[in-house]
Amino acid sequence: MKTKILMLLVGFITITAIYSCSKLDEKVLDESSVTGLTEKQQAEGIIAPVYAKLEDVFLHTNYFALQEISTDEAILPFRGGTDWGDNGIYLQLHKHENISSDANVRNTWNNILIGLSRSVTAINALQTSNDANAKKFLAEARGMRAYYSLLTLDLFGLIFVKDDISETSKILRGEAAISYIKTELLDIEPLLDNTTGPGRVTKGTVWGLLARLYLNAAVYRDVYATTFTFKNEDMDKVIEYSNNIINSGDYSLASDYFSLFNDNNHTNKELIFAVDQRANLNGHNRMAYFSIAGDQFPLPAYTGANGTDGPAITPDFYRTWVNANFPLDPADADPRFYKENLPPADNCIDAASFNINRGILRGQQYGLIRKNGVFLKCPDGKMQVSKLFYETRSKPTLAVDFTENIDFTVAGSNYNTGYRVEKYEFSKTSVSGRNFGEHDIIILRLADIYLMRAEAKLRKGDATALADVNTVRAARTATKPAAALPAITLDLLFRERGFEFYWEMVRRTDMIRFGKYEGTWTEKTSTDKQKRIFPIPQTAIDGASNLPGYLVQNPGY
Fold first, then answer.
1. pLDDT-derived band of residue 279, with 50, 70 and 90 as boundaries?
2. What is the pTM of this model?
3. How many helices (H) and strands (E) does the chain have?
């Protein structure tokens, strides 16, 4: 058995892990150091790479781009005619004009498939491990295989199934794919508990993924359907698994909405399943810096840690907030919209207490001023905070004054166009500023469970769906919570999911399920239902060319 483990570790990634507060921390080893590992170290070294690939899947240009920039929530123009051009892939993505050579689609596919391959490798190795934790690790590896499969089903309309790394995978679609994922999750559920989350697969993870699978089953059975048929028995399962989580007592809704996305969110009791980035060399701050301006510097310790002027929210999505809360401003009506940390005025702020604003950022921005490579300070030694201009873009007269309007025209693509999103906190524990972020990236949280249960009830005609929606709205008591809704419909629930989960990589899946993905929004008019799933990368099809008919391109590409 030791020889097999050695080959897997050296030939695959040669990684071991040390348990600490339920975190599997990777350390690269050479072959000689693997030889002396205990059974416990070997088992931990096998399961760690399975989770480690999640950080690459959840890069800003991978899963985030596919799930958000393809929707009415996010748009990324060719900034200033010089930045984010990337051969037009972000424009194509937003307009539903994807092509099979799209680098972001290819990279997302590759990272998910590597994670899937690592899961199969771990499953094979852990079956012969004598470590006391091997059975739980084996269940986790199967759970991760099911999760990676759920991603490929949702994004590409297929899954790959094999039990041995040397086998050729069987490709499943539709009902067969749903059944496989369901069986995998049900098989491992008795072997898990809720003591090791949210960075690892737990019972709560399994229940949440099953609820998500059943909720979207109508789409996965027939992704190109004119209308989706939501079976009552599927909705009953959504309610059942949601009840398991809600009634377990292991999770609770956070009173402070933005605490869910803080640097130290790993212990937040609302999180069920997440990408654990603590003290990990692969961790990143991309969820925090992708959208903000190049002249916004969130960390006084790092003059190179700034934004990229990436995606903004569309005017269409912004208007849903305005219309829902009129005559109140969204920032005054809903604590999920905005959190002010920096007042809109010149100021002097101690470095230790400096925080940029969070949520949806509008208008003139204030912050640290970098001159000649250093931040300016006030006479008392505090950090100078002033009105920001685009110094980093060599446009010192262009204010960092975010506008509502943004599109693909020259004027609409300027650096300051579009309201920005700073949902995740820029990691204060980073050792380099931009990289090595330590906030967990959320995959599943309790609010999603409540709103999935509400949707399942609503699709069955159950009036108690409204109570679940208002439970989530009322929970954010750190400031004045959003007012209770007097009634709920599917359209209102779709809107509510946008308010609760914006920028959390569920929008495309939601839009398809609610029949909104062929709609019209800023710079997007395509009504092609074949664009509900993405093209299989041409590189993957070429790589399988020795197996005629094995990997067939999705229709429309």
1. confident
2. 0.93
3. 20, 20
